[in-house]
From TrEMBL:
CDD domains: NAD_bind_2_malic_enz (cd05311). It comes from the Bacteria. It comes from Nocardioides potassii. Keywords: Metal-binding, Oxidoreductase. Belongs to the malic enzymes family. The keyword Transcription does not apply. Pfam families: malic (PF00390), Malic_M (PF03949). InterPro entries: ACT_dom (IPR002912), Aminoacid_DH-like_N_sf (IPR046346), Malate_Decarboxylase (IPR051674), Malic_N_dom (IPR012301), Malic_N_dom_sf (IPR037062), Malic_NAD-bd (IPR012302), Malic_NAD-bd_bact_type (IPR045213), Malic_OxRdtase (IPR001891). Signal peptide: none annotated. This is NAD-dependent malic enzyme. Residues 11-85 form the ACT domain. The keyword Cell membrane does not apply.
Length: 459
């Protein structure tokens, strides 16, 4: 039975016969159908019926429907209403704007707004550098998307991307006390996106590019870094790369191997794969082979696109060719940021002894983590229901906290390397284990350590 997830959690309101034994029958039926009951509340008890709210988690949407049907089949039970808890959480949006100053009296208004605010505006006019201190610019980030590559859902557009960008903004606030704003642009034209971000940049201390498809995202980031005096960070690239390097650092400690000596296969030549490879090489990796749907990228292949040619020229020193299955032979590490179910668990034994497998495609990984765990020494995924979740939340809040605190104008490779080390070092020698190579996103020190590593200040 597939693992259940809180993201597929439902609450069923049931009308049942006035027999509390029915409640137990409902719980038994849910368990027998592969669901997990997380709460049962009898909200009303009358002589003719009980009203019962049952909350349970399922493995996916269709499994949720199966659980509802199973409960409806219990004698004496009527399913009155079903609520999807994830949708309920999103009603009305997940973020809001709150004033940091009291607005109770005429005095308050005269200072926060007119006429007092005019003095502050003129002070910024006379000393433009004061805008970071006297406005929210010094603690604000724009989360910018065109909706072209949202999670694993593809090109679903700016409106459909809004819940994800809201979630990102909420994470910024929760983990780094940064005020972030969802900016969902109704264009997928590179020039228009660049110009739109340039026009809103005066109000922000940093730009977080999010869910913009490759190769467009590379040019957008490059041009914005050249034209803006605030840091531009593409989380799908650099946030992912930071956390992957941190996790791999600790995974190699577990298997007693060195980054400089291992063979690494990266599946996926898009934004995330390119950034991961770039950071791995900067950290000292020597033997990296990138694989896309057509096989290994090799500098000898004249049919490659310009972006893939650049990637091939920087990697694959042995000029390996062939499919993923073929280049995986004798590899020490597999890192997948590509597509679901492209790696057969039976291939893992052909890798070098004590192999490391990172299957990071979302929402469905390249190989089932449980199956990979039968053969690999260390397994990581992007899923929260297995050990070693590679989650960008470990990186981007601390990265931007450090950038804003330092008043930085750009992001450097050296910063990314320091951030990865800070995350890896958060796991102590006593804690390090093949099932614990990366700290929890709720670890109280992660954001502070990453911010300190980025800014160069003591935490």
């Amino acid at each position: 039975m597939a693992a259940t997830a809180s993201s597929y959690s439902i609450t069923m309101r049931l009308y049942t016969a006035p027999d509390h034994g029915v409640v137990g029958a409902v719980a038994t039926q849910i368990a027998a159908s592969g669901g997990v009951v997380t709460a049962i509340d009898v909200t009303e008890s009358r002589h003719d019926r009980l009203v019962v709210d049952v909350t349970c988690s399922a493995s996916d949407a269709s499994h949720s429907e199966e659980l509802v049907a199973a409960v409806a089949g219990v004698e004496g039970v009527t399913v009155h209403k079903v609520s999807d808890r994830t949708f309920l959480l999103h009603l009305g949006g997940k973020i809001s704007v709150n004033s940091k100053v009291p607005l109770r009296t005429r005095d308050d208004l005269s200072m926060a707004y007119t006429p007092g605010v005019g003095r502050v505006s003129m002070a910024i006019h006379d000393n433009p550098e004061d805008v970071r201190k006297l406005t929210i610019k010094g603690n604000s980030v724009a989360v910018v998307t065109d909706g072209s590559a949202v999670l694993g859902l593809g090109n679903i557009g700016p409106g459909a991307a809004m819940p994800v960008m809201e979630g990102k903004a909420a994470l910024f606030k929760r983990f780094a006390d940064i005020d972030a704003w969802p900016i969902c642009l109704a264009t997928q034209d590179t020039d228009e996106i660049v110009r739109a971000v340039e026009m809103i940049a005066p109000g922000f201390g940093g730009i977080n590019l999010e869910d913009i498809a490759a190769p467009r995202c590379f040019e957008i980031e490059r041009r914005l870094r050249e034209s803006l005096d605030i840091p531009v960070f593409h989380d799908d690239q650099h946030g992912t790369a930071i956390v992957v390097l941190a996790a791999l650092t600790n995974a190699l400690r577990c298997v007693d191997k060195d980054l400089e000596a291992v063979r690494i296969v990266v599946s996926g030549a898009g934004a995330a794969g390119t950034a991961i490879v770039t950071l791995l090489l900067a950290a000292g990796a020597q033997d990296v082979v990138v694989v896309d749907r057509d096989g290994a990228l090799c500098a000898d292949d004249s049919s490659l696109s310009s972006a893939h040619t650049d990637l091939a020229n920087a990697t694959n020193p042995r000029r390996a060719t062939g499919s993923l299955q073929e280049v995986l032979v004798d590899a020490d590490v597999f890192i997948g940021v590509s597509a679901p179910n492209i790696l057969d668990a039976e291939w893992i034994p052909t890798m070098a002894p004590k192999p490391v497998v990172f299957a990071l495609a979302n929402p469905d990984p390249e190989v089932d983590p449980a199956e990979a765990g039968k053969y690999a020494a260390v397994v990581a995924s992007g899923r929260s229901d297995y050990p070693n979740q590679i989650n960008n939340v470990l990186a981007f809040p601390g990265v931007f906290r450090g950038l804003l605190d330092a008043g930085a104008e750009d992001v450097t490779i050296d910063m990314l390397l320091r951030a990865a080390k800070a995350i890896a070092d958060t796991v102590s020698a006593e804690e390090l284990h093949p099932a614990f190579i990366i700290p929890s996103v709720f670890h109280p020190d992660v954001t502070k350590r990453v911010a300190s590593a980025i800014s160069g200040r003591e935490s």
